[in-house]
């Protein structure tokens, strides 16, 4: 489901910020059912290993690209979304 957020505030000297989130759309599949509280079951489960994560490799993204006919090494795929640590 998709929701729109409406931010609000109240007060003069002390201001209280709050918001309202209103659902305005739902995805209905061809079988007439909503994805809400059900989700999507993947055809295949692919997970990177701890060694892949430590070496900044992304074999899952490389595999997904290969399904589209694009050849990317896991090392190059790992560089697309570098980890940025908070300082």
Q: What does this molecule look like?
A:
The protein has 87 residues and is an alpha+beta fold. It is built from 3 helices and 2 strands; from the N terminus they run ββααα. A two-stranded antiparallel sheet has the order 1-2. The longest helix has 9 residues, at 59-67. It is flat and about 55 Å long. The model has no long low-confidence stretch (mean pLDDT 91).
Q: Topology of this protein?
A:
Blueprint: E1 2-10, E2 16-25, H1 50-54, H2 59-67, H3 74-78
Antiparallel strand pairs: 1-2
How many individual helices? Answer: 3
Beta-strand content? 15-25%
Q: Tell how many strands the DSSP assignment holds.
A: 2
The Rg value, from CA coordinates, equals: 21 Å
In angstroms, what separates the terminal alpha carbons?
Answer: 34 Å
Mean pLDDT: 91
- Can you write the helix and strand succession as a string? EEHHH
- How are the strands ordered across the major sheet? 1-2
Low-confidence stretches: none
Q: Can you summarize the main beta sheet?
A: 2 strands, antiparallel
Shape: flat
């Amino acid at each position: 489901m998709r929701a729109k957020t409406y931010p609000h505030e109240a007060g003069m000297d002390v201001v209280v910020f709050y918001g309202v989130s209103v659902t305005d759309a739902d995805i209905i599949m061809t079988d007439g059912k909503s994805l809400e509280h059900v989700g999507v079951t993947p055809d295949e489960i692919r997970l990177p290993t701890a060694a892949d994560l430590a070496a900044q490799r992304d074999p899952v993204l490389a595999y997904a690209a290969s399904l589209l006919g694009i050849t990317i090494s896991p090392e190059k795929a790992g560089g697309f979304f570098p980890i940025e640590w908070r300082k």
